[in-house]
Fold these 2 entries.
Entry 1:
Amino acid sequence: MMIKQLAGAHGFDFCGIAKAQPLDEDARRLENWLKQGMHGSMKYMENYFDLRVDPTKLVPGARSVITLMKNYFPGENTLTPDTGASGSKEIKISKYALGKDYHEIIRAKLKEMICALQEKIGEFNGRGFVDSAPVLERTWAQRSGLGWIGRNGNLITKQSGSFFFIATLIVDIDLAYDDPFAKDFCGSCQKCIEACPTNAILPGKVINGSKCISYFTIELKDEVIPVEMKGKFQNWMFGCDICQDVCPWNRFSKPHQEPEFSPIPEILNFTTKDWEALSEEAFKKIFKRSPISRAKLKGVQRNLKFIQSS
């Protein structure tokens, strides 16, 4: 209970705890997924396989995995930034990328929480991870009782849907563990599968990452997006929220209370022409602390050209 109170005090919305142990079933699924090439050009997914499926390889002597979740849902007024100008197509940017880079913000909160926890219980060995290390966050969230993994591959909570960042804290101390979330509340719903324009969501909760719009607009570094994807992006320039937007459970999403996630003004106000006219210097200055910097100006302009020509 003390850890969950600390999590709330440090800005996290949900906290669950599971026993650290190898994820044998996930290891088999991940190995099969990689063999089928569903990671596309994301070769880093092939690295550190043993670390991904065994927390004791990441933190020697690991006993517990603490999962922390932070809401990033922006509210109705900023669901889909419309930056279309004088007849040009609107430009869509994933909700998670509207504000400052969540890696920095959550990493700082994790460090503060670790220090606070050590003050309470004494020294321990532990590491915090925010989507930047080989950790299967959604599996640990499910094992910690926080929700279930939906057909779209996202962790879904009954209370607030799926617009959450997931952080993981692996420690070498025994704690009181939560029961895994045992039920799948997707039921017979197929909305995410039906809505995905690139057919990236397959039966059995398998996501073909190499066909996801987020993959093409963020991860793919090629100069040209495959021509067979023309007309399928629905004007998503960076990331994609389609499978979450259509999920019935996200009707329960509530606006976040994190000032650092407030939209960067330019994201909401830029016209298509503003995006196209961006200089390298201006891009680096405006988006220095934004997830959009990951695509680089070259990638953003490639994506813009692609959706405008579709």
Note: The beta strands are 14-19, 64-71, 92-93, 126-129, 148-149, 155-156, 164-171, 201-202, 206-207, 236-238.
Entry 2:
Amino acid sequence: MSKISRPKYPYHVPIYSTVDAARYLNIPVSTLRTWIKGRSYPTKTGHKDFRPLIQRPDPDYSQLSFTNLIEAHVLRVIRTVHNIPLDKVRLALDYISEQFKTEHPLVLKKFSSDGVDLFIEQVEHLINASRSGQLAMKQVLNHLLNRIEWDEENIAARLFPFIEAYGEDSPEKIITIDPNISFGKPTISKTGVPTKIVTELYDAGDSLEEIASDYNCTILQIKTAILFESKLRVA
């Protein structure tokens, strides 16, 4: 099976720890580790192992790539839509990989069109999902894919992580994760200003207005950056 035909840098470079990736995506660290390492599960004939859902650039190296970050973001669907066994998800991913001729189908723009329906069809075939369950799965997948922006080669280039505000995820794309900007750390969209920097300035006593003026940002952008970083600290 062929790999995505583009240089390794920057999308496949291992730059994220599992802990950071889980925090950025608001996924439990234990869940992400299971997707990365696989796990053993009981069957009538004994324990079996399922292969990881996410293939790291180097299995002997713990860091994740931006490609892996996107894959984990999309795979949130198995947490949001319940009762999808991980081994069945692996089989569905294998099918999509074969259809798209790549080891990383979830990062292709094509997945947001043809791939979503193919994935759901495979899951339905494997677990006999109800029509309502299929609809919910499609809605969640489309919701997640809407947070991704693709490059000229139709490969995921940047991610706009969810920012939980007032008990729900904000639809605004104010924070960006782009491997070409600030070494892949979260920044304020279209500015390149790291969210960590403005939060440190605010904690040091600078006002929202001062920070916004210094970085030519809006108050909303600064507030959102601080909110995003505060969620990371307690994750």
Note: Residues 1-7 have pLDDT under 50 and may be disordered.
